[in-house]
Amino acid sequence: MKRQQLLLLILAFGVFSILNTEMGIIGILPMAAAMYQVDIVQAGMLVSLFALGVAIAGPTMPLLFSRFNRKHVMLLVLGVFTICNALAVVASDFQLLLVLRVVPAFFHPVYCALAFSVAAASVAPEDAPRAVARINMGVAAGMVVGVPISNVLAATFDFSMAMVFFAGVTGLMFLLTMAFVPDLPVTQPMRYGAQLSVLKRPPVWLAIVAVICLNGSIFGVYNYLADYLQKVAALPGELIAALLLVYGLLNICGSYLGGNLLARCPSVTVRLFPLCTIALYCLLFVGGGKLLPLLAALIVAWGILGGINANINQYLLACVASDAPDFSNGLFLTAANLGCMAGTMLSGFFIRSLGLPFVVCGGLVMATAALLLTKFVHCQAEARIGDEHLLLLDGTDR
Question: How many CB atoms lie under 10 A from the CB of residue 10?
């Protein structure tokens, strides 16, 4: 049990180190622009090209590495991140810095997909959602904690010191993985064609669209939250920063809660989530911009829902493609990134057409679509799990 807990802890911190590299740079883009003498739009490519790399590599790279020893693959990924981050410390050219950001982005989904797969496989099937939730807590922490730390380091010293922080965290996880993660050979490697064959199942495609809608319903609106709090709610900058931090910290709590809910009552959790999201946005539209106590309460609920959302997304694809865990987790990462992109574009359309208070309409549209899709996808997943169980019993009887 202690070894299992240590493994989950290392995997969670490993995912944190990967997400820390991806998201931590968001808070220091103005410093990057100043250091490399580019405008803020060009500096934003350090984020957007990384996200594009993750989306492209999501379904391909985890599949490519699925036949190799998992510990060795994790060490490879952490090594690539550490070397690229270390070289970024001394990068004197912005184009070189972009290359050093894009290269590790293609390895990002490899580590994350493996972390989800190894965590789920390390426990009994009924406890898999709880184990995966620990990994999602690392994801949430990487998205929240890395931004203020890198910001403080860059502001106190310089931009390069933030790169030292990224390299130091991934380097530490490389050493811990080498020392404490057991050898993880793939005893029965699946053929690439067998894994790709899951794409022939209609429920898999429906699950992909459901994940796009679920993630878009949360992050499509959240990406405009700072602007909403400033221009609609008219809050001061210090309070906005505090509310955003609260949102992020509650994402971590929501990840833990989501794992327990999916382990105990998966059907209810999956079906209620879109309804809760719809109710939250309706309340936000009606009074969230006018009443600070209501707005604060909604952000608390929103942060918890954001954490639960990540667990549901991974769970849906894992259920309908349980026989190809690495590939399904790669699909999950790609669908989640596409959902963030699609939700942001849809909410932006409502902002341009109707004004900033109507940003929630994008979330409402995607949450409503998710409500219809998740019900059907989960029914298909339950039927598939039931069929597999009956086949197992039949084989045992014989």
Answer: 19
Contacts for 242 with CB less than 8 Å, ≥ 6 apart: none
Q: Which amino acid is at 85?
A: N
Task: Give the gyration radius of the chain's Cα atoms.
Answer: 21
pLDDT 10s digits, 204-223? 898 999 999 999 999 888 87
Amino acid at residue number 37:
Q
Structure tokens belonging to residue 80: 């690539």
Q: pTM (2 decimals)?
A: 0.77
Euclidean distance between CA atoms 305 and 314, whole angstroms: 14
Distances (CA, A) of 117 to 67, 121, 170, 207, 308: 13, 6, 20, 18, 18
Residue among 258, 352, 236 nearest 308 (CA): 258
Q: Could you give the CA distance from residue 211 to residue 311 in angstroms, rounded to a whole number?
A: 11
For 130-167, what is each residue's pLDDT tens digit?
A: 888 888 888 878 877 777 788 788 888 888 999 999 99
DSSP 351-363: HHHH-GGGGHHHH
Alpha carbon distance 174, 136 (integer Å)? 19
